[in-house]
Amino acid sequence: MSTIDKTVIDVRPKRQATAKNIAAMKGTTPIVCLTAYITPMAARLDKHCDLLLVGDSVGMVLYGMDSTLGVDLDMMIRHGRAVCRGAKQALVVIDLPFGTYEESKEQAFRNAARALSETGAGAVKLEGGIEMAETVRFLSTRGIPVLGHVGLMPQSVHVHGGYAARGRSVDEWQPIIDDAIAIAEAGAIAVVLEGVAEPLGRKVTESVSCPVIGIGASSGCDGQILVTEDMLGLFAINPKFVKRFAEIGHDIEAAIEDYANEVRERSFPAEEHTYKMRGANS
Ligand code: KIV
Question: What is the pTM (predicted TM-score) of this model?
Answer without folding.
Answer: 0.93
